[in-house]
Structures are given as structure tokens and as C-alpha cells.
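Q: what sequence does this backbone want?
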């Protein structure tokens, strides 16, 4: 998947240098080393290009990063999160560049992982945001994220904790300027994906100088009109996901469902857009876009992409057994590395004591 944890890693990486090149692996490489990817390589290429800290993207990057790769793209060093990545035979994929001092590490975003998101999708309940302690959820995470022994710190399920600092780091901080066209869109933008990216790109292209504001509905509101266990991501996670997109200038956290006159006046909105997806009526059965339609500022956008959050959940459910096997295998490899690290520490401590 491509989620805000990855965006945060790219943000940190960009801050370490001036120009960020991101290599994305093919489906075949990921299947070989990790298990089936959720998004196809073409979808992932496009999604990574849409992250605002990315300057350049390399398609089909090798799974093992070598000095040759770094030199080929004229890179001083490569950056990875502080979790372990291993090849199918359990080797550190960054061993060579680490030896040569051309490796940097950035902090992993606590509380999100592909594993956790997949777990939430497989656990189709309404309560996953509020009810992490419920026995069903615990039982499910046990099946999903744990191998037979122990618990890897990288593959567990934890809750994301939003801070004002994180929002500031992701936000552009740019005010609309005279001459900008202020475009407003609203929705859940759950599990931010290529369908959203294509839509926002088309919205961005509606004006010469677009300033795109995305209104995000609160979790309860999304649950009211989407049902099931939506949203999969809570409002804080969805905020970061949308802010990381290069086509977005500003996010309204907890936007009203009906796009009323107050909102249009407050943000001086020139244009309100909505995609081809169904517009659910408000609680009183009224059209949430009645006001912008009446004012003549409403536009329906056809992005040419019909992918929905529902479709992604379906992909996960269809591949459920493969994903569960993938996570158990990944955890077992991580646990083996942790055991080996512990053994090495004990050996060096033993040698140090013997030297005394």
C-alpha cells in the first residue's frame, strides 16, 4: 500500500538533502520478497509521484539497494525507515550501502503500517477506532500480526497518535494569493488511493492557479453514509494522507456535510467539485450540494478512474489468506533477526567480560 507513514518517511528523507528520488519496486519483486502487493505497480508509481516531497520517481527499482544503484542516479546516500527490510533469504537489503557509509535512517511513523491497515480491512466491524481492546480485535491481531513466538515491534497493531507538530510538518502553510482560484471538494478520502489522486489531479487542472481545499468529514459522519466499518482510517490519519498530496493546499478537519453559504463565503470559494461517485443525502434528506448548485459554482469531475475504497477492501478480502500468510512469514523473519542481534550482543558482552 501507499499510506501516510510512507509519506512521512519521504518528508523526513527530503529534509536530509535537496533532491529526493524514490525507487518503487515491481509487483514481481514485492511478491517474491514480501507477498502480494495491495496496489499494482502502475498505481503505486502514480501515487508516489503525487506525494509532494518527491522530486523524481524510478520505476522498477531493484529490491536490494546497491552502490551501483546510488551512483546510477547520482545519489549521495539512500534513506530507509528504522525497521528491518530483508530479502526472501533473510539478508539485510541495505548491507552494502551501510558498509560504505551511504545510508541514513529516518524514524518510522508509530501507529500505522500496511499490516495494520490490512488488518482493519479484514476485520469488518464498526468499532475498530474506538475498540482496540475488544477481544475480537485482539484475537484478530493475534492471528494477523504474530508468528508462533513473540511479537515483532514492526508488525503489530498500534494506534496512531496525532500531534499538532505532525500536521504542521505536512501542511503547506501557504495562504491563497490574489488571482488564485479557490476550489473546494469534500468527502471521506478514506485509505487515500489512486482514485483520489486522479480526482484531485483533475480538480487541480480546473484552473490556471488552483488553491484546492479538501473538506474531510468526521468519522461518525462517514459511518452514517458509508455504513459497515467505514472509515477504515480515522480523521487524523485521513488528514495527513490528503495533506501529503501535491494537488492539495489546505484541509478542513471535520467539514460540515452540507456545503452551505457560510462555508463558501468563509473560504471565498470560486468552484465546488465532486466526482462521479454517489452523493448521499444529508440527515434531513436534502442535497448537500444544493447551495453551490444554486450559486452556479458546482462542477462534476470525471477523473476516468472508478476505483473506490470499497474496491480496495475487496482486493484485501479476496487475498486474505495470502496476506495473513505474508504477515506471519514477515514477522517470523523479523523475530529471527532480533534473536540473532540479541545473540551477538550477548557474545560481545561475554567477550568484553572475559577481557576484563
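A:
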Amino acid at each position: 500500500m501507499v499510506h501516510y507513514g510512507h509519506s512521512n518517511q519521504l518528508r523526513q528523507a527530503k529534509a536530509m538533502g535537496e533532491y529526493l528520488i524514490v525507487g518503487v519496486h515491481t509487483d514481481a519483486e514485492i511478491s517474491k520478497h514480501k507477498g502480494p502487493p495491495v496496489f499494482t505497480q502502475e498505481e503505486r508509481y502514480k501515487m508516489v509521484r503525487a506525494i509532494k516531497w518527491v522530486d523524481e520517481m524510478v520505476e522498477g527499482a531493484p529490491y536490494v539497494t546497491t552502490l551501483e544503484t546510488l551512483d546510477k542516479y547520482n545519489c549521495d546516500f539512500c534513506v530507509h525507515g528504522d525497521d528491518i527490510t530483508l530479502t526472501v533469504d533473510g539478508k539485510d537489503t541495505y548491507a552494502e550501502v551501510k558498509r560504505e557509509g551511504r545510508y541514513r535512517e529516518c524514524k518510522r511513523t508509530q501507529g500505522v503500517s500496511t499490516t495494520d491497515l490490512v488488518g482493519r480491512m479484514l476485520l469488518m466491524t464498526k468499532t475498530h477506532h474506538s475498540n482496540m481492546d475488544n477481544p475480537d480485535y485482539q484475537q484478530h491481531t493475534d492471528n494477523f500480526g504474530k508468528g508462533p513466538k513473540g511479537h515483532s515491534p514492526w508488525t503489530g497493531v498500534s494506534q496512531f497518535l496525532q500531534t499538532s507538530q505532525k500536521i504542521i510538518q505536512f501542511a503547506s502553510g501557504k495562504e491563497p494569493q490574489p488571482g488564485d482560484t479557490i476550489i473546494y471538494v469534500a468527502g471521506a478520502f478514506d485509505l487515500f488511493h489512486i482514485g483520489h489522486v486522479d480526482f484531485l489531479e483533475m480538480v487541480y487542472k480546473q484552473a490556471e492557479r488552483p488553491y484546492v481545499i479538501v473538506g474531510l468529514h468526521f468519522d461518525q459522519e462517514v459511518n452514517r453514509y458509508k455504513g459497515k466499518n467505514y472509515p477504515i482510517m480515522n480523521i487524523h490519519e485521513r488528514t495527513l494522507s490528503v495533506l501529503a498530496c501535491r494537488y492539495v493546499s489546505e484541509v478542513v478537519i471535520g467539514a460540515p456535510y452540507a456545503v452551505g453559504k457560510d462555508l463558501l463565503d468563509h473560504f471565498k470559494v470560486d468552484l465546488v467539485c465532486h466526482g462521479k461517485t454517489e452523493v448521499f443525502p444529508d440527515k434531513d434528506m436534502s442535497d448537500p450540494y444544493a447551495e453551490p448548485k444554486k450559486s452556479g459554482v458546482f462542477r462534476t469531475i470525471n477523473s476516468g478512474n472508478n476505483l473506490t475504497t470499497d474496491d480496495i477492501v475487496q482486493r484485501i478480502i479476496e487475498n486474505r489468506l495470502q496476506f495473513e500468510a505474508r504477515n506471519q512469514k514477515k514477522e517470523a523473519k523479523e523475530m529471527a533477526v532480533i534473536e540473532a542481534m540479541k545473540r551477538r550482543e550477548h557474545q560481545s558482552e561475554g567477550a568484553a567480560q572475559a577481557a576484563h
